[in-house]
Design goal:
three-stranded mixed beta sheet; globular; 45% helix; alpha+beta; single chain; 182 residues; 2 domains; two-stranded antiparallel sheet; Beta Polymerase, domain 2
């Protein structure tokens, strides 16, 4: 088993946690800001790793304890050798009102990390912008879409279903500006 250390980045720590959960029979997908950190090559920093457990919820405690994490009185799992903490928000995995059925995988020396694909990551961040007027969600979606191939047609259709066609236009305009600057 790999040891968690102070210099371990989000991607490697997430892969280690994801792989250890898998060894315990738990399929989980990384979502939220940590995915943006990975896809933006650390341009955006998140200090929490949100894993959504697929299927029937199983006890993650043995897998997390095995890695040296401790559960706080709240919902966080912390480790003395890292500033990052882990959470297990309730599923299902979704972006706004749409359930996410596809994900990406990244192979690392710490194991395989299952995470939102770039299109779904952008949708997840846009959901915060659309429904809570979170400008950081818009910035994060633009950062991911500028660096990765995302399905803009699919995001547009999803945005319409979310009742956010005008805000989708904000996204595409900001994305075009960012791409023209890069």
């Amino acid at each position: 088993m790999s040891v968690i250390h102070e210099r371990m980045g989000v991607r490697d720590l997430a892969a280690l946690v994801c792989s250890n959960l898998e060894r315990h029979g738990i399929r989980a997908v990384l979502s939220g800001g940590a995915v943006v950190t990975i896809y933006s090559n650390n341009a955006y920093q998140s200090d929490d790793l949100d894993f959504i457990v697929e299927g029937l919820a199983k006890k993650v405690d043995p897998a997390m304890l095995e890695l040296g994490f401790e559960k706080t009185p709240g919902r966080h799992w912390i480790h003395p050798r890292t500033v990052f903490y882990v959470e297990f928000p309730r599923g299902p995995l979704q972006a706004g009102g749409a359930q996410v059925r596809e994900h990406a995988e990244i192979k690392t020396s710490y194991g395989v990390l299952r995470l939102l694909a770039p299109t779904e990551c952008a949708m997840d961040r846009l959901a915060a912008y659309y429904h809570w007027n979170d400008p950081q969600g818009l910035d994060q979606a633009v950062e991911v879409a500028a660096r990765h191939d995302v399905d803009l047609k699919r995001i547009g259709s999803w945005s319409k279903a979310e009742g956010a066609s005008r805000k989708f236009n904000d996204f595409t305009e900001r994305l075009a500006e960012k791409r023209s600057l890069d």
